[in-house]
Amino acid sequence: MEEWTTAVRRWVEDGELLNLCARLEPYQAEYLRDRAMTRCVLKSRQVGFSWVFAAEAVVRALFEERSLTLFVSLNEREAREKVRYAEAIHDALPRRLRGTLLSASRDGLEWANGSRVVSFPCRAPRGYSGASVVLDEMAFYPDDRAVYEGALPVVSRGGRLTVASSPFGARGVFWEQVERFRRGSEGFHYAPWWRCSWMVNAAAPRPDALRPAEGSPDPLEEMDTEERVARYGSVRLRAIRAAMNRDGFRQEYECQPLEETDAWISHEELMPCVRGGLEVARSLDDWEVVAQCDAGGAGPLFAGYDV
User: Fold this and answer.
1) CA-to-CA distance for 115 and 126, rounded, in angstroms?
2) pLDDT in tens, 257-304
3) ∠ CA 249-252-256 to the nearest 5 degrees?
4) Left (φ > 0), alpha (ψ -120 to 50) or beta: where does 7 sit?
5) Which residues contact 185 (CB under 8 A, 6 or more apart)?
6) Comparing C-alpha atoms, which of 299, 296, 303 is closest to residue 142?
7) What is d(CA 195, CA 192) in angstroms, rounded to the nearest whole number?
8) Is residue 116 within 8 Å of residue 109, measured between CB atoms?
């Protein structure tokens, strides 16, 4: 037990245990070392935070008996992906470090020591207490305030709450939390593409070498997007930039929210109309899908575009 306790302590402090399965990026290690009760992660797409959330849940499950981690995701498919990540990480550990899995389903994992990882689509995690709660891609939740306010009481008697997302406009509860955490001194984590090794040009300095000293401005933050991508972006990232408009790229990869000044319909008007998990009708005769739409309160739905 002492060997395991020491290993977990090293994992918490340095990420050493997880280096058995993968090399941690500096921003991932910083997140894992953060012991704040509430955390906020503003991130680029594809920088590996879903993996880190799952890894933290697995090590917590193995180290703390009867621990509980709750993942709230945008939809059912993403919720199941979190479980797949967690199971794969557990299986990648050396045999001596693995726990005994009693059950593994699409919705969660349970170990013999009573620890659980539970994942479900976008709703408030009511009926739980003392859990570690992760609200992932929170900026895109249709009813973000209800989910957030329903999650806070879960950590009243223990546990912790993490809100994480790439931005979706400077709006909603997630962006409120970003601005609040930026004013504070702990719990805020920022991961634009240039801090991620696989998005940086191999000929450029390592991403950690691009990081500014504590308290000093980030030199890459001062650059224009075009210069930044041209000088430091990987071949693949430069190709993605060429295929996207500038504002879309900045939101998806550089953590800069789109402005709504030119939008005909605002995010606040759009989000209540979103229905997760609807199937697309193959034809007007596909009454099963039409009935599904009716049951959701939307009525028959039709889609098209003006060329």
Assistant:
1) 18
2) 987 655 666 666 776 676 666 666 666 666 565 555 555 555 666 666
3) 85
4) alpha
5) none
6) 296
7) 6
8) yes
